Amino acid sequence: MQLLAAATRVSLEDCLLVVYKPDAAxxxxxxxxxxxxxxxxxxxxAGYNLIILNDLEQTLAQTAGFLIERGIPADTxxxxxxxxxxxxxxxxxxxISEVSRGTSHWMSCMAVKQSES
Length: 117
Hints:
There is one protein chain. The chain is α+β, with helices and mostly antiparallel strands. It has one domain: 2-Layer Sandwich (Methyltransferase, Cobalt-precorrin-4 Transmethylase, Domain 2). Helices cover 33% and strands 22% of the residues. It contains 4 helices and 5 strands; from the N terminus they run αβαβαββαβ. Strand 1, helix 2 (30-45) and strand 2 form a beta-alpha-beta unit. The chain is globular. 26% of the residues are buried.
């Protein structure tokens, strides 16, 4: 997440970092998912950037789709980091709409940066 923040040129103190909590069986805790999603929306609307860690059960596509459904413009630019810190590291800029329709490596994160208006 820190590598993606640096690539996005944002300070971690200006970001909400989102990591999903597992339940006792190792799956995403669904009540935590609801809380984190609402927190993402509030933070973004309050002017914070978002850095979201992918999960096998909560992909970046699912998260991007949720954010679009809840009012984040489909043309919002995001940065996706795949396999950060490895030799296979890949950083790609795209729209949140593209992320919602695509796939990414299971070890990925996404930065949703506030527009620079």
